[in-house]
Design brief:
The protein is an all-beta fold and 119 residues long. It is built from no helices and eleven strands. Strands 2, 4, 5, 6, 9, 10 and 11 form a seven-stranded mixed sheet that branches. β5 and β6 form a beta hairpin. The radius of gyration is 13 Å and the shape is globular. The termini are far apart.
Length: 119
């Protein structure tokens, strides 16, 4: 069974950088059949796809983030990471990591981690 677990700070100050970790079990981050993605959901709003890292380590991002997001990985620990710079309070949200299949399905999700951006 594939499992994903997010971890990171629950509170970040405005203008600071958010760093989150997603730890994968039950699959390999280098599996050629899948990508690994970050998604967030602000309170009362819909899901927003943030970016994805492929099995080869290349990544793509939501252009709406204006190049503030970076996704990287540590294959030895089977983890991938999100860094998001210049945070604003409007980016308070539950942040999720998920597995992306070639069919476009997000078939396994972490439980999500609450991130509050506040001074």
């Amino acid at each position: 069974q594939v499992q994903l677990q997010e971890s990171g700070p629950g509170l970040v100050k405005p203008s600071q950088t958010l760093s989150l970790t997603c730890t994968i079990s039950g699959d390999s981050i280098t599996n050629k059949d899948y990508g690994w993605t970050w998604i967030r959901q602000p309170p009362g709003k819909g899901l927003e796809w943030m970016g994805l890292i492929r099995h080869d380590g290349s990544s793509v991002y939501n252009s709406a983030l204006n190049s503030r997001a970076s996704i990287s990985r540590d294959t030895s620990k089977n983890q991938f990471f999100l860094q998001l710079t210049s945070l604003t309070p409007e980016e308070t949200a539950v942040y999720y990591c998920a597995r992306w299949s070639k069919s476009g399905e997000l078939d396994f999700w972490g439980q999500g981690t609450q991130v509050t951006v506040s001074s």
